[in-house]
Amino acid sequence: MAVNHPRDIRAFLSGYRGNGLVSSPQETKYSDNLEFYKNRLRCQPDGLLVEEILDQWKGDYNTLELGHGYIQWLFPIQEDGMNFAAQRLMPHEISAMRSDAEVMRRIVRAYTMMLDFYGMRLQSEETGLVGRALPPGSYSSRYMNLLLSPHNNLRISRVLKCLSEVGLEHLNAGFVLHVLNEQSEHSELKTPFIRDSMDRWWANCIRDDREREWVARAIARVRSGRLVFTRQMYENVLEGRMQTGKFPTELLDENAS
User: Which DSSP helix (H) or strand (E) runs through 121?
Assistant: First the structure.
């Protein structure tokens, strides 16, 4: 049965083929995203290097909430955004960024900074396991901000698409399934806006068909009341994926009735 994904998700899942967004050969000279992540180019309009943002802005929730230009620099994707001073991600940049260990470390730091902004923390870079922010941070106040500021839903979609582009897609299911656990076991992050963004966008920012379908099935089980997705389940499925390369189908099969 065909799934009616939003247009931007269809473009993302296709790798942006046939939609006019793939760069032409002459565009290989455009490398703003790569230069920014190499700490050699200042983002606009903030005028900061990536290391300055990562050092100075973590925990600065007002700046992260009210600023709108930085997100396209920290999480570039092959789509144009609202900051016209930012360049969309070029295919030649993707391979260069993936092959640069320091660039990849900075991208993970940017992700952890945004998780902290959302009241979360990355517990395992290997599995993608996410947990609630620890004191002195307050996950509950950050969760409330996420509920009251739905423009962050769009930001999260961009973050997840970017992680997929640069070879960190395993982190995406870790994020989505953490939110699913919070909704299912703890009745957190359950507003219609969050659920809609999660079900239609976030859960589909996974290009691996098998993994995306597993996540969709898990969400459907929770939405229908047939599954309580516990924290132990969440940790087990991520650990199982790391060991076997795939999520365990038996978990959802056991809860199919």
Answer: strand 120-122
